[in-house]
Amino acid sequence: MSLDTATVRRIASLARIRLEEPEVPRMQAELNGILGWIEQLQAVDTEGVEPMAGGGAVSLRMREDAVTDGGIPEQVLANAPDREGEYFGVPKVVE
Amino acid sequence: MHPTDFTLRGAIEALNEGLLTSVELTQAHLDAITALNPRLNAYVTVTAEQALAQAKASDARRAAGVAGPLEGVPLAIKDLFCTAGVRTTAGSRILDNFIPPYESTVSGNLLRDGAVFLGKVNLDEFAMGSSNTTSAFGPVENPWSRANDPDTRLVPGGSSGGSAAAVAARLALGATATDTGGSIRQPAAFCGIAGIKPTYGRCSRFGIVAFASSLDQAGPVARTVEDCAILLRSMAGFDPKDSTSADVPVPDFAAACARGVKGLRIGVPKEYRLEGTPPEIEALWEQGLAWLREQGAETVEISLPHTKYALPTYYIVAPAEASSNLARYDGVRFGRREKGADLKDLYERTRAAGFGAEVRRRIMIGTYVLSAGYYDAYYLKAQKIRALIKRDFDQAFANVDAIVTPATPSAAFGMDEKQDDPVTMYLNDVFTVTANLAGLPGLSVPSGLDAQGLPLGLQVIGRAFDEETVFAVGNAIEQAADFTALPRLRAGA
Amino acid sequence: MSFTIEGATGPWEIVCGLEVHAQVTSNAKLFSGAATAFGAAPNSQVSFVDAGFPGMLPVINRECVAQAVRTGLGLKAQINLWSRFDRKNYFYADLPQGYQISQYAHPIVGTGAIEIELADGSTKTIGITRLHLEQDAGKSLHDQHPTKSFIDLNRSGVALMEIVSEPDMRSPEEAGAYLTKLRQILRYLGTCDGNMDEGSMRADVNVSVRKAGEAYRTRCEVKNVNSIRFVMQAVEAEARRQIEVWESGGSVDQETRLFDTGRGVTRSMRSKEDAHDYRYFPDPDLPPLVLEAEWVEGLKATLPELPDARRARYVAMGLSPYDAHVLTLEKETAAYFETVAQGRDAKVAANWVTGDLFAAINRTKTSIAEPPVPAEHLGALLDLLANKTLSGTLAKTVFEAMIETGKSPGAIVQERGLRQVTDTGAIERMVDQVLEANADKVAEYRAGKEKLFGFFVGQVMKAMQGKGNPALVNEVVKKKLG
């Protein structure tokens, strides 16, 4: 599977990474290099193998339903690049 | 003896005996940082004032008879661990001047045990790299250099290059590090020090900037295996704030170092005999196995048939998780923001400017392998091969107690080498990445030098939550190797 | 008879399915310890986990899981003892992590069913496809600033149940009845408060239309409809729009739309962006959710009685199906009724609750949750009626006094001396006085003007300030007039 430039642009858009037009061919070549190398996995017989998602525990631990956090709006907002009073500010979104 | 020449254990003993104070020990390290860091670039943030205050408080605690296991020991913290009130960068421009209002569990555990933090050390951006050349704060230099070519600046390995370089150059007694595909063990090997990636779940991931959640594990680097054991005991432990943290007791790892290897069965995976591996690495491996046999262990050939698929599997799983983990860096709640015509434009400009080339590349790969129509062919396939890799280890560990392999396929390379093609750089992790995929502990032990006088490491892989055997085997190799060589750039040299 | 919309080309059938997002009733959020209360100051109920800060990790809330299981049991659905959380990846200003933690491939609850009641008295079964747990997003405010949107993350991370129905509904009425019934069940279970105006329940409405006997045509999703009335309107408006598209020779595009409540029409969302590709994958921060069968059994054993069972029980107690329906619509009404009916005549209790009490609630603009008369007081009033301390008329008087004063009926009877007079001697004396004072009318009566009987009874009751036992008064007047 080899990526065309349209796919490279679509992936960049999905990932929200601006890709200037002159950067597209280079990114395309690098991604295709990596994907070509990854392609060898298709040779492995994985018939009937259960996929392994995580590294650790077999089941989730559950915590009690108690309010133990929050109430720290100043800390939550302290690192904001655009703080608008008690809110985070972003360019206006049209739905 | 210069205070920076102590091992961590030696420093604790010296402090206990009153031979020096934590303030003196800390000041000596801060002086060493001032002298060498401009060249090595190991630290991105030095918290001298805070370190001296911590040292002073530590000396007071010791005087009051309430010394913790790491009382007064100056350490370096990889800048992937969030530290309350101290800038945390992950080696990226995108975090800008992010000041976490919270402490990672692992660094918090070290503080609980009395440690002093000298500052935050450099790393590959978001821990993505094997050479510490992708950091937004510039590359870290390996304190070692080739005997016949001392002017070529070498990489310290990555991603924990700052941690390894700082410890090797004696700018800290030990350091925290993280390992997703080899990021503790490879830089430890390149810098002639020890480093362990513990079992997945052994150390809490809470407060560590995530790269690939199912692979990331924190661990220590230090100048001896025993020092790593001492640090790991403090770093490890169950944390209810991490759903993948294991609720298992933390043994006395340092005590396990002295167990010896008599009667242990050591596996030697035939698939790790890679074509193109330098003969001196093959020879060192044989030497290591011989040392273990001399001390009473039995070595047996084993097969880990899916080894060759581990790296490509990793380069699906890790970027996929990273593409999602790094979505939160969007310029809204913290970190860098670029102006945009609208929200999407703001995101795209912020992330293009904030992430470096390697991070962008991996986010792109990860986004692609998860995207509609490709998930089964890439991500699901990789998860299945990951299961097969784990199965290989399960079968091997039915017959052996530990596995010994080379840590890296080469010694440290030059800063300008291996930069042409991403895949060439990825191959650095060929021996280490399997332990991450299978969630197993892996220790890198400095074991010898190559013909250029550069350090080489051997790796010990153990069963899940059996770090004790890993430490025992690592300690046996270390004792036999009697690794006394020193890097050219180091404090007090 | 089935519901159709008449188009230019003949009748069209509606096909509708609902995805309901119901906020789980819990103290803390699904994966963080921040509070869930409605109406708090902006960003005051936000942990660093909810704000997607670096290194933060999710830990699941047991009660949210229990609530999802209870709901599944209430929907007679299959409980999956093994389920898993996936990440749904997309960028949005109020989605701090850049992904929503949801259950895509392996939901906690599988197929179930809801029986709905329709106006004509018929019932219909609507299939439940699945229920899964997921995080809510934050809130964007678009009207605070000319060029900016403001983000409040208080809702970010609150647990939601997404309850997906089969496309089994065929009319706006059925969609309304489904949502009504679902809300009723959730409120009975206590797993969601059902407050649609606070956003505790929102529906995404999937609508398509077809001619009789056809396979399904393309559907559209009308997102975030926040009242039962609007859901019914949205189904009809969207169906009519689609019929118009098909009949004018066009074809309906699968898309997401919004319901304009002011104009009563649906419109395409402007912010379509590029085609969504959510890149679901298992959340590596969260191992699978594995439930013990015994734990689920324990939740089942403590499940409250649900509306259908309760209605059946009321009918068995002698109530009309209509009263049983009305009394079980709201959990609070049923609870009120049960307190009043406890140890008393159920039909009398039902009449008072559905009659006088409902009227009083309307008149005083109160609610069953904060009733004008406590259930215990109404019950005591019924006791005074039963033991003939009060006549029906007196009881109404006392009831009004209870509303005004908030006092118990016993206290009011005591204070105002409203006890019914059943002493025959006293009544006879009063009747004698009245007949004596109205000798002319007595003569007229005896001359055949029999309708004056009521006049005498009225005069006696008036003289007794309404406290005479009506039956006895009648009897005595009749006897004396002989």
From TrEMBL, chain A:
Name the catalysed reactions: L-aspartyl-tRNA(Asn) + L-glutamine + ATP + H2O = L-asparaginyl-tRNA(Asn) + L-glutamate + ADP + phosphate + 2 H(+); L-glutamyl-tRNA(Gln) + L-glutamine + ATP + H2O = L-glutaminyl-tRNA(Gln) + L-glutamate + ADP + phosphate + H(+)
Does the UniProt entry include the keyword Ribonucleoprotein? Answer: no
Identify the domain of life: Bacteria
- BP term (GO), one: glutaminyl-tRNAGln biosynthesis via transamidation
Family matches, as InterPro entries: Asp/Glu-ADT_sf_sub_c, GatC
EC code(s) of this entry? 6.3.5.-
Q: Which UniProt keywords apply?
A: ATP-binding, Ligase, Nucleotide-binding, Protein biosynthesis
Return the broad EC class.
ligase
A single Gene Ontology molecular function, please?
A: ATP binding
Binding partners and assembly = Heterotrimer of A, B and C subunits.
Query: Main role?
Result: Allows the formation of correctly charged Asn-tRNA(Asn) or Gln-tRNA(Gln) through the transamidation of misacylated Asp-tRNA(Asn) or Glu-tRNA(Gln) in organisms which lack either or both of asparaginyl-tRNA or glutaminyl-tRNA synthetases. The reaction takes place in the presence of glutamine and ATP through an activated phospho-Asp-tRNA(Asn) or phospho-Glu-tRNA(Gln).
Which family, according to the similarity comment? Belongs to the GatC family.
- Name of the protein: Aspartyl/glutamyl-tRNA(Asn/Gln) amidotransferase subunit C
What is the species of this protein? Siccirubricoccus deserti
From TrEMBL, chain B:
Q: Which reaction does it catalyse?
A: L-glutamyl-tRNA(Gln) + L-glutamine + ATP + H2O = L-glutaminyl-tRNA(Gln) + L-glutamate + ADP + phosphate + H(+)
The molecular function terms in GO held by this entry are: ATP binding; glutaminyl-tRNA synthase (glutamine-hydrolyzing) activity
Kindly give the InterPro entries that the UniProt entry links to this protein.
Amidase, Amidase_CS, Amidase_dom, AS_sf, GatA
A Pfam family annotated for this chain is Amidase
Please give the GO cellular component terms listed in this UniProt entry: glutamyl-tRNA(Gln) amidotransferase complex
- In this protein, the active site sits at K78, S159, S183
Q: What is its EC number?
A: 6.3.5.7
The record's function comment reads:
Allows the formation of correctly charged Gln-tRNA(Gln) through the transamidation of misacylated Glu-tRNA(Gln) in organisms which lack glutaminyl-tRNA synthetase. The reaction takes place in the presence of glutamine and ATP through an activated gamma-phospho-Glu-tRNA(Gln).
Q: How does it assemble?
A: Heterotrimer of A, B and C subunits.
Stated name of the protein: Glutamyl-tRNA(Gln) amidotransferase subunit A
Which organism is the protein's source?
Siccirubricoccus deserti
UniProtKB/TrEMBL annotation, chain C:
Could you list this entry's UniProt keywords, alphabetically sorted. Answer: ATP-binding, Ligase, Nucleotide-binding, Protein biosynthesis
Quote the subunit structure annotation. Heterotrimer of A, B and C subunits.
Q: Family assignment?
A: Belongs to the GatB/GatE family. GatB subfamily.
**One family name in Pfam for this protein:** GatB_N
Q: What is catalysed by this protein?
A: L-glutamyl-tRNA(Gln) + L-glutamine + ATP + H2O = L-glutaminyl-tRNA(Gln) + L-glutamate + ADP + phosphate + H(+); L-aspartyl-tRNA(Asn) + L-glutamine + ATP + H2O = L-asparaginyl-tRNA(Asn) + L-glutamate + ADP + phosphate + 2 H(+)
Domain of life, per UniProt, equals Bacteria
GO biological process terms held by the UniProt record = glutaminyl-tRNAGln biosynthesis via transamidation; translation
What's the source species for this entry?
A: Siccirubricoccus deserti
Q: According to its UniProt entry, what is the function of this protein? A: Allows the formation of correctly charged Asn-tRNA(Asn) or Gln-tRNA(Gln) through the transamidation of misacylated Asp-tRNA(Asn) or Glu-tRNA(Gln) in organisms which lack either or both of asparaginyl-tRNA or glutaminyl-tRNA synthetases. The reaction takes place in the presence of glutamine and ATP through an activated phospho-Asp-tRNA(Asn) or phospho-Glu-tRNA(Gln).
Protein name per the record: Aspartyl/glutamyl-tRNA(Asn/Gln) amidotransferase subunit B
Name the PANTHER family on file: GLUTAMYL-TRNA GLN AMIDOTRANSFERASE SUBUNIT B MITOCHONDRIAL AND PROKARYOTIC PET112-RELATED, GLUTAMYL-TRNA(GLN) AMIDOTRANSFERASE SUBUNIT B, MITOCHONDRIAL
What EC designation does it have? 6.3.5.-
Quick check: keyword Ligase in the entry? Answer: yes
Looking up HAMAP family in the UniProt record yields: GatB
Quote one Gene Ontology molecular function term: ATP binding
Q: Give all residue intervals belonging to the Asn/Gln amidotransferase domain.
A: 335-481
